[in-house]
Write a structure and sequence with these properties.
Blueprint lengths: L14 H12 L4 H5 L5 E4 L16 E13 L5 E7 L5 E5 L1 E3 L5 E3 L10 E7 L4 E6 L3 H7 L5 E6 L1 E4 L2 E5 L2 E3 L11 E4 L4 H5 L4 H15 L9 H7 L4 H9 L4 H33 L10 H8 L7 H15 L5 E6 L5 H14 L3 E5 L3 H15 L6 E4 L5 H13 L4 E4 L2 H4 L7 E7 L6 H8 L9 E6 L5 H7 L4 E5 L9 E6 L4 H13 L3 E5 L8 H17 L8 E4 L5 H12 L5 E4 L12 E6 L7 H8 L9 E6 L6 H12 L3 H12 L25 H17 L9 H7 L14
Parallel strand pairs: 8-11, 14-19, 14-20, 15-17, 15-18, 16-17, 18-19, 21-26, 22-24, 22-25, 23-24, 25-26
Antiparallel strand pairs: 1-13, 2-3, 2-7, 2-9, 3-4, 5-6, 7-8, 9-12, 10-11
Helix pairs in contact: 7-8, 8-23, 9-11, 10-11
The structure holds adenosine-5'-diphosphate and magnesium ion.
Amino acid sequence: MSELSTSIQYLSGVGPKRAELLQRELGLGTLSDLIHFYPFRYMDRSGLQRIAGIDSSLASVQVRGRVVQVTLYGPGSTVLAQSHYDANGQAVTVLGEVKERGGSGKTGDRLHFNAAKRLSVIVDDGSGRMEMVFFKGIKWNYQRLALGSEFIFFGKPQEFNGRYNMVHPEVDAPQQDGPAQGGLTGVYPSTEKLKNGGITGKVMCRLESAALALCLHEVTETLPEYLIRELGLCSLQYALKNIHFPSDSYALEKATRRLKFEELFFLQLSLLKQKYVRSRAEKGLEMPRVGTDFHACYNSLPYSLTGAQQRVIKEIRADMMSGHQMNRLLQGDVGSGKTMVAVLSCLIAVGNGYQACIMAPTEVLAQQHFANISKYLAPTSVKCAILTGASSVRERREIHAGLEDGSIGIIVGTHALIEDPVRFKALGLAVIDEQHRFGVDQRSRLWAKGPDGVPPHVLVMTATPIPRTLAMTLYGDLDVSVIDEMPPGRKPVQTMCIGESKRPAMYSFMKKEIAAGRQVFVVFPMIFESEKTDMQNLERGYEDIIARFPLSEGYKIAIVHGQQSNEEKNFNMAAFAAGRAQILVSTTVIEVGVDVPNASVMVIESAQRFGLSQLHQLRGRVGRGADKSYCILVKDVKTSKEAQHRLDLMCQTENGFDIAEEDMRMRGPGDLEGTQQSGLPFNLSIASLAKDGRLLEEARGVASHVLDADPTLSLPQNELLSRELRKDKYVFRDYSKIS
Ligand code: ADP
Ligand code: MG
């Protein structure tokens, strides 16, 4: 048996209990797991600081000094024992009183470590003195840190009573060799339980060192020789050794680059390979024609398409003509004109004798899509219908019949489209709007609705700008189109952030805008629709606004929230959309898609509670028609530094992709709003999607190059690659059914 697959348990100093702890806390089972578990940062322990020069700006310091006083404290800071030097330089130890139960004091002739609460050690390095404090491991440290002995202390300095001390510093004897001293020392991810179980940073280093000594020589290359040479990478063995124990910062850089590249490369290689395989295997519906309805619609548009819209439609057309199934993600900021692209794509399907469906995440959006699309379709002969949860039994029956006999060409709807026993005569294209609201299996059910088992083309539209690096990974096997140009006439939205004190001024401003014929959104956070306090805030806000904008002065206010019935919601939304109300007070239900061009002001209450992309989506509701639009972010006094940073960013930029990038940097990709990934479907152990964007692109480029030359990875030179891809960790990623 090879050392690599040996259980960690057999490593000296581990044993069954610690092995279980390492497995549970870090998922480490074998020596191979261990050597692939990397430090997340490094401490430079090559330098020593002078105690006199320490200040609070230093995150950690290392000092070397002599122990000049040791004090052992008991309960209530009673002194159990103290050693120090007297005036003549003689070492003296004074034992204090230990109060035994029962009260009679006695002078201890031996130390009662059980009673000890704290150990204080004063260290002198010639420039000054510093206290080291221990609450744990008291006996061990008391015995080790004897008066007059010299040690190296490493830790985080804290200010206490005007001086610096360190609590539980790492302690090393000088001159002792080993990984914990000198140069760069790795710091490993850890948990409270690990530390309590005795697996400290130092122990981790020791385990890594022991594991490498046992099995590094067994590690075999995962990248073919020709790639290592072309890319100037170091060997895997060198990388593993230096990621744990870098000989210097240059070696660390080489090691990091190699390991990050490898991780990103195999991720991309597996995704792209699936894409190759799928496009070969899946039969797609061939749609060679454009059709008269497409032209009829196109020619009667009240505006000309933007360059980006034209380009995207061409990309979609090429996909639909190709005979392969289209799987395309269409990204475009709020208001970039995705609906038009969807309609024209649907008309291509219709022009080839197929049907199309457009799915929206909410009833309101489906209704709005239906209204818009019906307008676009007026000059065509295509019949369009809507199916939602609110459709009556009779409507449903008619629609089912129309879809089955093919008389309905385009159907707009909500989840009802998949949940219902809807059968199409020939579904050729499924458009999914705002995809992040749909679950994976819901989408895949659409696939079954294609004619004769051939899956329909799929176009997923999202207004949540996904940073390029993430899109390349999450949707690595999808094609991505981006509408990166706004229709002409969109005015920038002036964004400002205010506190409570400016509220009266804000209300006057709203009145001014309303007097000019504009409308105003006021949005309250409702993170969980069920949360009571959120509901109360909304109601209080609503009453406040009613009080300041009274009906007697002609103000009409609509309110929409998640606890209303669908009819109520639709009624109120419609009132605002038609201009019958000047103010719409709502929760984030209006976040997605709603289009009221006359609205010029977006007020976001408790703005600090929203995430960046949500703020961006909300702001996108204005600036669609009015001459000038405004977004007012109202923040609480309780706004954290991080939240303030988000609000500042909102005031600085309107670019959705910049905001998404920053969102990812601030929150980490696993948390990215809109992707609904509570963790990515894969683990990156060293690379970061947020930080290693350039390397990711390079890795993807190389992967694509390799596959171009050898799509099945069957050339001898690529044997290592196909062997690596057969490993378990690359199997789960079946995005072929769109996720
Ligand atoms: P989104 O990408 O957010 O779904 P929409 O498709 O709803 O955007 O379009 C936003 C608004 O822009 C709509 O009122 C639409 O009529 C308008 N629009 C779309 N394309 C153009 C264009 N090329 N020129 C002018 N206006 C356009
Ligand atoms: Mg839209």
